[in-house]
Design a protein that fits this description.
The complex is a heterodimer of chains A (484) and B (137). Chain A has 17 helices and 19 strands. In chain A, strands 7, 8, 9, 11, 15, 16, 18 and 19 form an eight-stranded mixed beta sheet that branches. In chain A, strands 1-2-3-4-5-13-12 form a seven-stranded mixed beta sheet, with helices on both faces. The longest helix of chain A has 36 residues. In chain A, 64% of the residues are buried. Chain B has two helices and ten strands. Chain B starts with 5 loop residues before the first strand and ends with a strand. In chain B, strands 1, 2, 8, 9 and 10 form a five-stranded antiparallel beta sheet that branches. Chain B has a three-stranded antiparallel beta sheet with strand order 4-6-5, covered by helices on one side. Chain B has a two-stranded antiparallel sheet with strand order 3-7. In chain B, a hairpin with a 2-residue loop joins strand 5 and strand 6. Chain B is of the alpha+beta class. The mean pLDDT of chain B is 93. In chain B, helix 1 runs parallel beside helix 2. The chains are: A alpha+beta (484), B alpha+beta (137). At the A-B interface, helix 9, helix 11 and helix 14 of A face helix 2, strand 7 and strand 8 of B.
């Protein structure tokens, strides 16, 4: 792939026409600054080819898209967005990926950094102790099988009934933390077994809890609506559906191998495996995927409960108000049935966002009343030790990208190279010297997630903001990081 | 063929292993050994060892390889099984019989979410077989 294979549509929009490859059904569009584009055109980088591969799927509306945090995945690129039509399009378990409804939740406080600074080390220790993390660790909840079925069906409502959520948390969660189409009858016993003991656990890899300070506010009205003020602390949670979602995806990627043949779908990569959305196979996966999505909403909600306990434990009586209120919770690995206007026509589509965030603009009825005038919050974690962002969706994202925006910084360095060039212990010392408290279960895991393994998140945000598919609200800088 | 029958290769977001074997049986065994080495298990010395037997069939060789490794991913996560011994007894017509031995209740330094089909192809070489496997981590 070379730069001349792209047509520059706008300052931050690059198009690969269908003439690039015979099997493309729609053009592909990449949102990137010139610098970010050049960074993904290296010989060993397969991410743009992966974007082109997604443009070959049947029944697509508009374009196959990629956000500026694009990087190489398996099947879809991370940062990929497609919208197959409900009528004649597909649903792809390989496209959604293994960590179904991996996402981000942000909780905000009225605690000023200066007020909390003497206690941040204790806070990091309490968060690490109270929020189970690491590989395959059991959670803090004992759940019966029938209660687990209710959890998968009811999502965040289950958490509310069981005392892990506040009513206002639910209103400030994508889909109110519950997808109605969850169908547990299409979930395997293996997925049930992997998932039942992991509710309320962070996991390992790139998942984390981070305490940040609000560094700068760019939009006063939106920041006020979200309860964000400069100098105050916020918490980010990045986790997903744990072993439950991994098994649901594993089961359906396997099962769909024969479905694709049955429906005569030809794919450039077997991991893009899919079936018609309206087929029995497609609907079975959609039901199981929605159950996994509900699991993930509960998982982040229970983690939020443990985080609030930790704040109370360490800061009650020491700061004026230790409470945390939810800003929002969003998914970034999902396939969702939505209505969009494409080329002037209203179409029902199944928007696949793989490492991309829903970013609905002002006026969207699914938002709580205080967010309707400003648009949906878009939560963009940076790499460990660098900035993160809170943005809002715009009219531009609705018009250009099926209401989608970026989800993070995006990797540039392989895990192998990161381990080779970064020493986990040294990195931890460097972060501590910058005033960032680190609690991590694995030093090599820490090295793999080093900031230098990621793109510059500020450049990514500059791009989505410049392209008009999100608007800046606040920039966050880390003060404590908890990793498995 | 180098002495080490597997090597980690560059992949920006996940893990990729290039695995070799003098025959298919060795390829499947070495793929499992390479994956287990990446997971970095540490056994609980107080736990007794257990055995698990497998009989798997698939429509093609690549799917059989994924099914086989996926069985082990499940055991690692669901039983926290630190696998110490792998024997593929028979492999023909996309069917496999194997036994693994290990200790449950262990700890792991890396989490393998799943084994992917991405770019997977078992290639015949002069000195045996080779496959590159991408794991979601």
């Amino acid at each position: 792939m070379r730069k001349q294979d792209f047509n520059r549509i706008a300052e931050y929009v690059w198009e690969i026409p269908t003439s690039y490859r015979d099997d493309m059904n729609v053009p592909a569009r990449l949102y990137a600054s010139e610098r970010l584009l050049e960074a993904v055109l290296g010989e060993d980088d397969k991410s743009v080819e992966q974007l082109v591969n997604t443009a070959t799927l049947p029944g697509l509306a508009g374009y196959a898209l990629a956000m500026p945090d694009i990087h190489q995945g398996y099947g879809f690129p991370i940062g990929g967005v497609i919208a197959p039509r409900v009528e004649d399009g597909v649903i792809s378990p390989g496209g959604v990926g293994y960590d179904i409804n991996c996402g981000v939740r942000v909780l905000a406080s009225r605690i000023h950094y200066e007020e909390a600074a003497p206690y941040l080390s204790d806070l990091a220790t309490a968060l690490y102790r109270n929020c189970p993390s690491g590989v395959g660790k059991g959670g803090s909840l004992q759940i019966s099988k029938s209660d687990f079925v209710d959890l998968l069906h009811d999502g965040a409502q289950w958490a509310l009934r069981n005392g892990y959520a506040l009513p206002e948390d639910i209103e400030r969660t994508e889909e109110n933390g519950r997808l109605a189409g969850a169908d547990v009858s299409h979930v395997s016993s293996r997925a049930m077994s992997r998932g039942i003991e992991q509710v309320g656990t962070l996991g390992a890899g790139n998942h984390f809890i981070e305490v940040d300070m609000i560094d700068e506010v760019f939009d006063e009205q939106a920041a006020d609506a979200m309860g964000l003020a400069p100098g105050n602390l916020v918490v980010q949670i990045h986790s997903g559906s744990r072993g439950f979602g991994h098994q649901v995806c594993t089961d359906y990627v396997r099962e769909f191998q024969s479905a694709a043949q049955k429906y005569g779908i030809h794919l450039p990569d077997r991991q893009l495996i899919c079936a018609p959305f309206q087929s029995p196979e497609g609907q079975a996966y959609f039901g199981a995927m929605n159950a996994a999505a509900n699991y993930a909403f509960v998982n982040r909600q229970v983690l939020a409960y443990h985080i609030r306990r930790s704040f109370e434990e360490v800061l009650a009586g020491k700061v004026d108000d230790w409470h945390l209120h939810q800003v929002y919770d969003i998914a970034h690995n999902m396939a969702k049935r939505e209505t969009h206007v494409v080329n002037g026509e209203t179409v029902e589509v199944v928007v696949h966002r793989k490492g991309a965030t829903r970013a609905f603009g002002p006026g969207f009825e699914g938002l709580p009343p205080e967010y309707r005038p400003i648009g949906q919050p878009v939560l963009v974690p940076g790499s460990m030790g660098t900035a993160s962002w809170i943005l809002v969706g715009t009219e531009g994202s609705m018009a250009q990208t099926f209401g989608s925006s970026c989800h993070g910084a995006g990797r540039v360095m392989s895990r192998r190279e990161a381990k080779r060039s970064v020493h986990g212990g040294t990195l931890r010392t460097e972060l501590e010297q910058e005033g960032i408290h680190v609690r991590a279960g694995s030093m090599s895991g820490l090295a793999e997630e080093a900031p230098q393994a990621y793109k510059d998140v500020d450049e990514v945000v500059k791009t989505v903001s410049g392209a008009g598919i999100a608007r800046k609200v606040a920039r966050l800088v880390p003060v404590a990081v908890i990793k498995g | 063929m180098s002495d080490q029958p597997w090597e980690e290769i560059e992949h920006s977001a996940d893990w990729a292993l290039r695995v070799r074997g003098e025959d298919l049986r060795a390829l499947y065994e070495n793929a499992a050994r390479g994956m287990i080495a990446l997971a970095g298990g540490e056994a609980d010395p107080d736990q007794p060892a257990v055995s698990h037997d497998f009989a798997l069939s698939a429509p093609d060789a690549e799917t059989l390889l994924i099914d086989w490794l996926t069985e082990l991913v499940y055991l690692i996560e669901d039983k926290s099984l630190v696998i110490s011994d792998i024997r593929v007894a028979r492999i023909e017509n996309f069917s496999l019989e194997a036994t693994v031995r290990g200790t449950p209740g262990g700890h792991f330094s890396k989490h393998i979410k799943a084994v992917t089909y991405h770019g997977l192809e078992i290639i015949r070489r002069d000195d045996g077989y080779e496959a590159t496997i991408v794991f979601d981590v």
